[in-house]
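quick one before i forget lol
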Amino acid sequence: MSTNQPVLVRAAEAEVLPAAGVTLFADVADTGGHLTSHRSILRPGKDSAPPHQHQEASELFFVLTGSLRVLLGDDLITLAKGDFLVVPPNTPHAFEAAGDENTEVFFVLTHAKPRFDYYRLLERVYRGETNAAELAQTSDLYDNHYVESPVWQTRQS
């Protein structure tokens, strides 16, 4: 897979998964295997991404609005509007909105597997159409491997 063609996704044409708060921009099939990207709106007090790691992909975070609590290995950090973070492969991480306002984050995964179907499955979980156990069964397919984290489990809001 390779492409030398520009990828343009107009806001009005992007696929929106409202229950999950995810807007899909470009997947690996669109970018010649280079990356996948999406935007998430995370709500305070709502479940977000539990501890996980990617064996192949690096994940880039850019905070557009609000603030984001992030598990990074064994550390908890908070990202503010305009902050940028790259999480390399095999690094446990998790994230959620910090504070009392919605947090909007732009994500890019490089060296990624196709992920849009993962987000569509996540949408079905949020809608109650399937259960989270189905997500866990897709770890290898989407390179999203859930891990245990005492630091994340004992965090304070």
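fyi The first strand starts at residue 15 and ends at 17.
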